[in-house]
Amino acid sequence: MISRKVVLHFPRKLVEQPIVFKLVKDYELNFNILKAYVTPDEEGLMVLELSGEEPAFEKGLHYLKSCGVKIQPLSQDVVRNEKKCTDCGVCVPLCPAGALLPDKESREIVFSEDKCIACGVCVRICPFKAMEVRF
Amino acid sequence: MKTIKEINAKIGRGDAVVVTAEEIIDLVAKKGVRKVAREVDVVTTATFGPMCSSGVYFNIGHSKPRIKLGGGSCTVNDVPVYAAFGAVDVFLGATAVPDDDPRNKIFPGEFKYGGGHVIQELAAGKDVRLECSAYGTDCYPRRKLETLLNIRDLNEAVLFNMRNCYQNYNVAVNLSGKTVFTYMGMLKPRLGNANYSSAGQLSPLLKDPYYRTIGIGTRIFLGGGIGYIAWHGTQHNPCVERGRNGIPLGGAGTLAVIGDLKQMSPEWLVGTSMAGYGVTLSIGIGVPIPVFDEEVVRRAAVTDAEIYAPVVDYGRDYPQRSSRIIAEVSYAELRSGNIKLRGKTVPTGSLSSYARARKIAVLLKTRIEEGEFFLTEPSAALPGAESGYKVKPLNERLYKKE
Ligand code: SF4
Ligand code: SF4
Questions:
Q1: Considering the domain boundaries, does residue B108 fall inside one?
Q2: B124 domain residue, yes or no
Q3: Å from A116 to nearest chain B CA?
Q4: Is the N or C terminus of chain B more exposed, i.e. has fewer CB atoms within 10 Å?
């Protein structure tokens, strides 16, 4: 038995299809959906904890790839150091998950941890090094 | 018609009416320009963003025996500082990086630490490491000096910035096919994002577009303390094209400012790392506008929807100094989260923090209301829109090599 957290990126055309359920049926994988939503660019995002027998696990991932789903392993968490963030907003258009968005009233940049897929883009580009990786 | 003297008398009595450059918008919409001009005494404007032409000069005091740093070399926390002045005066620039920083060798460079960060640490009251070597003279015999420094022990520590508060600025996009890393942030290819950098309707020079009230000698909020406008900034360019409301349609006026670093705080002076570009310093500035008359109010009540910025390609055009403007968009559109360019919806990002600019405008308002901050009469005007003063590009001329 192995168990891993993965981020699945579904292109627009696949969002509506029951791909994940095939994993259960044909590959006997168990999954736990941690996050699932559609991003502003209408890409489907899903963070799963997948578990199953080793050979089936690999086959299942292979099946996902063959459908056109992009898979990103999730081995880290990204957190924000609120003291360092200046609410500039330069990260907003670069976050693929829509996890960094301005609040219309306060104009502060709100970080929604529940949407973050830990891609690391903001960690690289935040001018104030406010986004940090936690392993 | 109110004068600075009258306004200061009201501030002294604690009954000056102060509003921020945002608040005046609603107020004018509700009460009209005439009434607001009578009721309001001061409008506070502000901006917070990266300002690369910043630096700090300080005097470290004479060592025993004495050393003359000029002509030698000098670093603070490994960041090189300029010491070609009198014996123990040095200048630390915001964009300096340590000699052993890999810079862009592994692209895009991280630029974790540099001059801007040292300035923030000084302002925070942290000890910094000074290392100097000198050539030694009869009057300044010492050749080596290594010591900790703290801002409270320095004779003077002064923030000087030769260009900031840009009156309007470019919106940066990338039309090329590859990601670029610029001082306007990371720009994804083929119009992947659009980055802007102005506080718009809160920004000082956009609210006094003809510099009627802001001039040399104007007292300002600088990095948390008190500063002054020292001069017009470098690349000051007041004679550009303006909209019907008098607001420049692109980068125009700039300010040079000065202030006591000892009064400033690390909250409003923040070391900044632009991936692939370099290190800089983000500064918070607040400028009060005295309400002399109705015209001041009319100008200060301009909204984001009436301020337009030029969209420029930083993929190819900007590096090649092409002056092509792809489109003009308003700050209201920019702040909506995306703009339409060439049929594409492009998400927007900002380098300048509107939330912080607002905090500064409120802070300055409070300081004035509580009688802690008085206005000054400018001692000279900035070169204005009719002055003929213009920014010039470099005219490269070859010279003979010996
Ligand atoms: S880029 Fe960094 S400082 Fe700016 S809003 Fe995002 S997290 Fe905050
Ligand atoms: S790591 Fe940053 S950019 Fe990536 S999804 Fe999380 S918040 Fe967005």
A1: yes
A2: yes
A3: 18
A4: C
